[in-house]
Design goal:
The complex is a heterodimer of chains A (164) and B (333). Chain A is mostly helical. Chain A has one domain (2-163). Chain A is built from six helices and no strands. In chain A, helix 1 (2-41) runs antiparallel to helix 6 (116-163), helix 2 runs antiparallel to helix 3 and helix 4 (79-89) runs antiparallel to helix 5. By secondary structure, chain B is α+β, with helices and mostly antiparallel strands. Chain B folds into two domains: 2-134, Beta-Lactamase, CATH 3.30.450; 147-330, 3-Layer(aba) Sandwich (Rossmann fold), CATH 3.40.50.300. Helix content of chain B is 28%, strand content 31%. Chain B is built from eleven helices and 20 strands. In chain B, strands 14-11-15-16-10-17-18-19-20 form a nine-stranded mixed β-sheet, sandwiched between helices. In chain B, strands 4-3-2-1-7-6-5 form a seven-stranded antiparallel β-sheet. In chain B, strand 12 and strand 13 (211-212) form a beta hairpin. In chain B, helix 8 runs parallel beside helix 9. Chain B starts with a helix and ends with a strand. Classes of the chains: A mainly alpha (164), B alpha+beta (333). Chains A and B meet through helix 2 and helix 6 of A and helix 4 of B.
């Protein structure tokens, strides 16, 4: 039982490392669509967020759909407040680390507050930042996934031996 | 109560939660008669009825002492702007340049703030400091009096220029003309025609996401937020309307577009600022349309004894006075 628990913990930590680059990649896809929605068709933000979230699956889809819904029904909230609230509620589902969380919150502070040209420039900058983070997250995945899996098994075994 | 329910549907949801709570608690008689709601950052909340104003306290009751009035915070304005713009100022660049939004119900929200200039032209407004919510009041059948003079028989409509000073009810009358031309007028044996509306300032149709929120009848096509001259020619090419309707002519290209529409056999109904026909003749571009008698009818509108009073209707090509208000008595027509 101790060995299975250790293995489980190791696999759980490893899965966050493998899930993170996938979710960042989905986030980049969503924000690219958002940029087009804002720049070319001036789609209002609640609809634009739901529209760009619809193209992906899983927690990132839910993040965009829920943010869009909440902004539509409680329009006095700023996108930053709503992103923060939804990310808090989805903390266990989202594999985002601090750098991408901060980028999303900064994006929330700027979304919808300027004209199309400025929004386009800002989203281009955000996407460039996320692409760098995605590369780093892939490197971290390659380094850590196997390590945490083995570490989990080994820690379980070691603890079992100590207990015996 | 009808007025209150309109405010409940169209205005309360647009206000920041704190402001909405206060306004909802205001006495019913004030809400029923209110014409404007002024929100100024760090200044008392003000509600206007015509030229009288009332400062509202935190409990919504009018207060005489300024110190007892609720002071609007910048946060109240920011939240209201977020609701009105749906957190999407980029989708309202044109509105920000013009300095106002038109919202469902036809209410107009005027804005002031810090101007951002580019090459000597106003590019946008930021740091909004004041919002003036002008509450629209629907006046059904406001065009009933003029309709018989606009119909030429055989489904044809006379090209008409509505003339009147600012805030005399031209837009309200124009909106009702659109509705009646589009829906038909059974009492005048008129079945209705295809109407094209160029709504440059989103005031006639009060479109939301391209769909009119004002009742314009079943045969009206609206080009929202489009410059009048471009829009008139676009509508003629794309929608084949029998009548094109637009608000506030003024520029050289507007006059050119009216001529093009008339030459294409499409009737044009438009409004223009001015006291009377002689006044309009002095205006550049539009004065030329008047001197060359491009329109069939002039309808002069005034504010006395009430907003939207028809002062005079003139048959231009016959040079005949069809109607003149004189102490409320119809003289001709």
């Amino acid at each position: 039982m101790v060995i299975s628990a250790g293995t489980g913990i190791g696999f759980s930590v490893a899965s966050r490392y493998s899930e993170r680059p996938r979710q960042i990649s989905q986030l980049i896809g969503c924000l690219t669509t958002l940029k087009a929605c804002v720049s070319y068709i001036s789609m209002p933000l609640p609809e634009a967020l739901k529209h760009c979230g619809a193209a992906v699956e899983g927690p990132v889809r839910e993040l965009f759909q829920r943010t869009g819904d909440l902004l539509g029904t409680e329009g006095w909230l700023s996108p930053r407040q709503v992103f923060a609230e939804v990310m808090e509620e989805m903390a266990t589902k989202l594999a985002f680390a601090m750098p991408e969380r901060e980028i999303i919150l900064q994006l929330g502070s700027n979304l919808g507050t300027t004209n199309r040209e400025e929004q386009q420039k800002y989203l281009t900058m955000v996407l460039a930042g996320l692409e760098k983070i995605e590369q780093e997250s892939r490197r971290a995945r390659d380094l850590n996934v196997k390590m945490f899996r083995y570490l989990g098994i080994c820690a379980g075994l070691a603890l079992a031996i100590l207990l015996v | 109560m009808e007025r209150y329910s309109i405010l409940e549907k169209t205005i309360f949801p647009l206000l920041a939660p704190t402001l909405a709570t206060i306004i909802k608690s205001a006495p019913l008689w004030i809400l029923e008669e209110a014409t404007e709601l002024r929100l100024r950052a760090s200044q008392p909340l003000l509600l206007q009825i015509g030229d009288k104003d009332f400062f509202l306290g935190r409990d919504g009751k009018p207060v005489a002492d300024l110190l007892a009035a609720y002071v609007c915070s910048r946060e109240d304005l920011v939240q209201t702007l977020q609701i009105v713009s749906r957190n999407s100022l980029y989708a309202f660049e044109q509105e920000l340049r013009m300095g106002f939004f038109t919202v469902p119900g036809g209410h107009r929200i005027g804005l002031t703030g810090q101007a951002i200039m580019n090459d000597g032209e106003l590019k946008a407004l930021k740091n909004i400091g004041t919002m003036n919510i002008r509450l629209a009041r629907a006046i059904p059948e406001s065009a009933a009096q003029v309709m018989p003079y606009l119909l030429a028989g055989g489904g044809r409509v006379f090209s008409t220029l509505l003339i009147g000073p600012p805030r005399c009810g031209k837009t309200t009358m124009l909106r009702d003309i659109v509705r009646q031309l589009s829906s038909g007028v059974p009492r005048l044996n008129f079945r209705g025609v295809q109407v094209g509306v160029v709504d440059e300032r989103s005031e006639l149709a009060a479109c939301r996401d391209g769909i009119p929120t004002a009742d314009l009848g079943p045969r009206a096509d609206v080009l929202d937020g489009c410059p009048k001259a471009t829009g008139m020619l676009m509508l003629i090419r794309s929608m084949a309307p029998q009548v094109v309707i637009t608000d506030e002519l003024g520029r050289k290209e507007d006059a050119f577009a009216v001529q093009e529409a008339l030459h294409a056999g499409v009737s044009v109904i438009a409004s223009v600022h001015g006291r009377d026909v002689e006044d309009i003749k002095q205006r550049p571009f539009i004065g030329e349309l008047v001197r060359q008698k491009f329109f069939d009818r002039y309808v002069v509108i005034g504010v006395s004894p009430s907003i939207g009073t028809v002062e005079m209707i003139i048959a231009v090509k016959q040079d005949a006075l069809l109607f003149q208000r004189s102490n409320g008595v119809r003289e001709c027509g």
